[in-house]
Design brief:
five-stranded mixed sheet; 8 helices; seven-stranded mixed sheet
Length: about 350
């Protein structure tokens, strides 16, 4: 197969980078280009039809199954509030939950660098077991490979998961509609800042801890209200900015945020100001964004706030018919600014 580089449109990160760079794994525009212009053409008719999201929903024998896979390369492997072990379990559980599914079973494959301490690997395995028990899922299959010393970086984990989607639930990016309220389940940016502070030895006056957590229980509480939840997304790599831009483009709608309503904790804001980061592009591992019809918003918010992982839930914006495919924020001064899709990744190796 010959890739048609000349047919790509700007911005085209791949055209000028003939080799993989860190930004291709950042969940932003470079990742999207890689999927759209390399993987999908390469897969051809064997690729996934329809919308691309956090997971695929497949009907098998009359049962709707959610299926997801994810890789974890976070550095360092242990950070305030979590580790690569619980991150791998919770991340996959959350990808399934964003379709409304009840997660059931996970697989786990390990790529280990020669020389990795068995004590560290044991801590990771114990963290995965504890996270799986807390989420009510089982680790049922897996694989292990070892690479030469210097060919890897400690431990990489790849997980896959399956779950069951309840009858009548249809949650996907393309269902976002003008008039939807946009909700967030809590404070933003904690995971990315926690990993960065540990990696670089930075302090910001107080310890920032990762928000890694399983969100399927929160999703179940939202669905139990009877509201027609249109879209769910956990804003991990690329943060809220990437998640909302992907949804806006998939549904052909505009998104308007109210800047003063964005829940960015003071310590996260201080860290981002110090380092020149945009908190809307910083990864989260225990938060979700929801699009629900405005008449159901308060009911859903009440259910979210009653759950341990949704106590800080609030409305942050509205889905509009204007400027389709774009995300804008209304500032405190009454103006607007465009929230663009991240090109690469502010913080590589964050999950």
């Amino acid at each position: 197969m010959t890739l048609d580089f000349e047919s790509w449109t700007c911005p085209v990160p791949l055209r000028d980078t003939p080799a993989i760079v860190l930004g291709h794994g950042g969940g932003g525009a470079m990742s999207a280009e890689l999927v759209r212009h390399l993987f999908l053409p390469g897969y051809g008719s064997a690729g996934a039809p329809g919308e691309l999201g956090d997971c695929a929903v497949l009907e098998i024998g009359g049962t709707r199954l959610a299926f997801s896979t994810d890789g974890f390369v976070v550095k360092p492997m242990f950070f305030p509030g979590g580790s690569i072990g619980d991150l791998a379990v919770n991340g996959t559980v959350n990808d399934l939950a964003m379709s409304g599914a009840t997660p059931l079973h996970l697989s786990a494959a390990f790529i280990l660098q020669e020389g990795t301490a068995l004590a560290e690997l044991g801590r990771i395995a114990e963290a995965m077991g504890a996270a799986a028990r807390a989420a009510g899922v089982r680790l049922v299959t897996g694989d292990t490979k070892v690479v030469d010393n210097g060919s890897g970086d400690g431990v990489y984990v790849t997980t896959a998961g399956i779950g069951v989607v309840p009858e009548g639930v249809d949650i996907r990016p393309g269902r976002a509609a003008p008039g939807d309220a946009i909700l967030i389940s809590g404070d933003l940016g904690a995971h990315g800042v926690a990993v960065l502070s540990c990696r670089e030895g930075l302090t910001f006056g107080t310890e920032v801890r990762s928000d890694t957590a399983p969100l399927h229980g929160l999703v179940a509480a939202m669905l139990a209200t009877g509201a027609d939840v249109h879209v769910l997304r956990d804003p991990t790599r690329g943060g809220v900015a990437a998640a909302l831009n992907e949804i806006a483009k998939a549904a052909g709608v505009g998104v308007e945020l109210t800047e003063r309503d964005l829940p960015v904790p003071g310590e996260v804001a201080d860290a981002c100001n110090l380092l020149g980061l945009d908190p809307l592009q910083v990864a989260n591992e225990g938060k979700l964004v929801a699009f629900v019809p405005e008449p159901h918003a308060e009911q859903v918010l009440e259910a979210m706030r009653a759950h341990a992982y949704g106590k800080g839930a609030r409305k942050i914006g509205t889905c509009v018919p204007d400027h389709p495919g774009m995300v804008v924020a209304r500032t405190a001064l009454g103006g607007t600014r465009v929230i663009s899709m991240p090109i690469g990744e502010q913080l590589p190796r964050i999950c």
